[in-house]
Each structure stands twice: as structure tokens, then as C-alpha cells.
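Title: Prediction job returns without error message
Component: structure pipeline
Severity: low
Priority: P3
Assignee: unassigned

Description:
Job completed but the reporter wants confirmation the result is attached to the right record. Sequence as submitted:
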Amino acid sequence: MAITTEQIKELREATGAGILDCRKALEQANGDFDKAVDFLREKGLATAAKRADRDASEGTVELYSHGNGRVGVMVEVNCETDFVARSEPFRHFAHELALQIAAAAPRYIRAEDIPEVELEREREVARRRAIEEGKPEAIHERIIAGRLEKFKDEVSLLRQTYIRDEGVKIEQLLMQNVAAIGENIVIRRFARWELGESTK
């Protein structure tokens, strides 16, 4: 099947991938746009994984204020070069992260960052709920494990669903940006403040 310039252009606009990569993806997918997008995503994720061990010491600190100053977010996002740190796609990604943090209120970057004492407390809450709901004891551990995973999805930034696209997790969004920008990107740290919240 002949791949048209229009198809390549459309795929390039949708994915941000290079012209040759778009042509190859469309050829692999026999002109099927959705399959070509999937092919590019898989290729991009594989490339992003290879870049993960590269040093990322440049970047930006993105500040965001929401609701007339009711919520404030500061997030540090790092990349490999100053050139990329100043680029529009990188700045846009940092801004999207700040919006995500403001809207979804994660407490940690990764699930591995959650302290064991907090996970244990959630296990205990889930255990008590299973008993109160009269669930059979034989399935308590499965219920607890499921609720613990749900908790991790809620409080870990990388496991959260992207506020602009329910089909994408923040970790996938990060990998897509690594693939598109061509450098390792690291979400280093963030802070979120909400007016009137109590400090611990």
C-alpha cells in the first residue's frame, strides 16, 4: 500500500515523531493510522527506557497558582541539556505536571516512595472495611491488595491518570515526552499547598 504525504503529515502532527519514523510506522501498519500510533508509542517507550540512566541535571522549576491563589504548586523537572530546558515542549510538559499536581493532589512521585508505615495503615483500613462489609475471610487478602493498589494509584503522581486523557497514566506521558524530546526527563520533586490546609 502506498503511503501518502498527507498520512505522514497527519501522523507527525498527532505524535510529534520524525517524518521517516512516521513513514515506517505507516508502512508497518499497512496505512492503519491507529496501529501506526501504537507502533510509534511502543518504539518511543523502548527508546525512552534506554535514556533513563542518562544524567539529567538541567531543567526548570515550574510554578502554578490555581483558583485565585487557593492552590499553589512548585515542581522541579530535569532534563539533560539547557537547550531542551528552554524548549517549548519541555516547558509545556512541566506545566502539565503542575496542573496535574494541582488537580489530583498526589503525595509522592513513585509508589516506591510511599513510607511502609503509611502502606501498613492503608492495609489495616482495608482489612477493617472488608470485615465490616461482611466479606468472606478467604478473599480478604485479595480485597486488601486491590485497595492498596488503588491507594497507590491515587497518591503516586506517576501512577495517576492524566487529567486531560483518561487513557494515559502520567508515567506514560513522561515516557512519551522523553521519546519526543530525545532526552532523559526526571520529575525530581514537587510541593503542593492548599489554602487553609493543616500542616503536619
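Comment from assignee: result matches the submitted record. The CA atoms of residues 55 and 80 lie 6 Å apart.
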